[in-house]
Design goal:
6 helices; 177 residues; OmpH family outer membrane protein; Chaperone_Skp; signal
């Protein structure tokens, strides 16, 4: 039984060594997409356009909040002059306006909101360009894999010799200054 276990263990070790040998010989590299994006001129344009949309939506949200604030102030000022029924009506209107403001914020800045959708729409063409360049660089350099340093995939140490970010910039026709 003990011999059988040793034989099984040795077979397992041999199998693992056989499987790992090809992966050891493979060439790996890494890039930093954050670095590449910040160097790409289209990224600055995308950021500016996104900021313009964001500013407009923030103003609309602030206007809604301001309306709620003004309605509350008006209600407080007129509170003594209103009947209980009139007070409750105005309070209901304020609550409805508050709900509209919250709904606008969620619809605009929430998960899968307009901001996220616009960001995705604007970034998609740029991401496609970059990933196509990454693909060409990887194939040209015979890489088995390429990690993205910016994505935080657990790279603790990176040897600068294996950083292919500059090659991707070159492939995109961007000069690193």
């Amino acid at each position: 039984m003990e011999k059988c276990m040793k034989l099984l263990f040795l077979s397992g070790v041999m199998f693992l060594m056989t499987c790992m040998t090809p992966s050891i010989a493979q060439k790996w590299g890494y890039i930093d997409t954050e670095f590449i994006l910040n160097k790409h001129p289209d990224y600055k344009l995308v950021q500016q356009e996104l900021e313009a949309y964001s500013s407009q939506w923030k103003k609309e949200a602030q206007n809604l909040e301001q309306e709620v604030k003004e309605m509350r102030s008006a209600l407080k000022a007129e509170e003594v002059l209103l009947t209980e029924e009139m007070y409750q009506e105005r309070l209901a209107m304020i609550e409805e306006k508050q709900k509209q403001a919250v709904a606008f914020n969620n619809r605009t800045f929430g998960i899968n909101g307009q901001y996220y959708q616009k960001q995705t729409e604007l970034m998609q063409p740029l991401q496609s360009k970059i990933y196509e360049a990454i693909d060409r660089v990887s194939k040209r350099n015979g890489l088995a894999g390429l990690f993205d340093k910016a994505a935080g995939l657990g790279l603790i140490y990176t040897d600068p010799r294996h950083d292919y970010s500059e090659f991707v910039l070159e492939e995109l026709g961007i000069e690193n200054k």
